Amino acid sequence: MKLLGRVAIVTGGAKGIGKCVCQLFAEEGAAVVVADLDVETGQMAADELAANGHKAAFVKVDVTKEESVKGLVKAAVDTFGKLDIMIANAGIAETIPIHNLSLETWNRTIDVNLTGVFLTNKYAIEQMLFQGYGVIVNTASMLGHIGRNEVTSYTASKGGVANLTRTLGVTYASKGIRVNAVCPGYIDTDLIRNKSPEAKEELIRLHPIGRLGQPEEIAKAILFLASDDSSFVCGANLMVDGGFTAQ
Ligand SMILES: NC(=O)c1ccc[n+]([C@@H]2O[C@H](COP(=O)([O-])OP(=O)(O)OC[C@H]3O[C@@H](n4cnc5c(N)ncnc54)[C@H](O)[C@@H]3O)[C@@H](O)[C@H]2O)c1
């Protein structure tokens, strides 16, 4: 088992990619804190893990709120004694051209996707500096590295996550804390399920591999970055996108 005895927080852990990460980390021996704004789904995810004999707890968090994120890290440490791994994964998406994009929608995307990563990284690193070790994986996106028609605030927020990750990777590498990001292509989760069949076909065509990704495939990449298998990797943005950005 790659994470035996480790304690991990996964934000956005109630469903999609985050839920798969919680499941995989638990199977690899970690105690998992499922952290999400969605209480009902998040609690169910944690209960499911516990019912299968894993160490798991649900903590409600709004990653845009400082006190809420502080409380999340404290709850993990109070419950499981330490914090080895933070997966900053909660996110929302939008596809609106800038001339139609309200300031409210822009602010909401930046708040959840970028400020949320700032806050979760900040308070995880505070705890990890105290311990002298830790690993952080941020869920950025391939759309933090390329432009995409009408995906305005989302691409801006993920570009911020990609570069914040580089800076934190550089800043804390010598202090025993590794910070990296995973950059998924289009993944078959609720985030993109409201797209029309035509739009989905178009997305599939854009991936050289000829299909969308599955959340389990992103979870495996996150496990690599969170485990000792990636002990010499820091400040990296790992593309897991079926070749989308390689073309
Ligand atoms: N699905 C994709 O195609 C894709 C591609 C690239 C990157 N990503 C990124 O992967 C991450 C997970 O996406 P997903 O596809 O699993 O989405 P999802 O919608 O299935 O899950 C997102 C989770 O985040 C939670 N969340 C939203 N706002 C929150 C907040 N303020 N505080 C706490 N939790 C909050 C939601 O309740 C939900 O459980 C996101 O950061 C997303 O941008 C997804």
From TrEMBL:
The keyword Oxidoreductase applies. Keywords: Oxidoreductase. GO terms for molecular function: glucose 1-dehydrogenase [NAD(P)+] activity. Its EC number is 1.1.1.47. InterPro entries: NAD(P)-bd_dom_sf (IPR036291), Sc_DH/Rdtase_CS (IPR020904), SDR_fam (IPR002347). PROSITE patterns: ADH_SHORT. NCBIfam families: PRK07231.1 (NF005559), PRK12826.1-2 (NF009466). Belongs to the short-chain dehydrogenases/reductases (SDR) family. PANTHER family: BLR0893 PROTEIN (PTHR24321:SF11), DEHYDROGENASES, SHORT CHAIN (PTHR24321). This is Glucose 1-dehydrogenase.
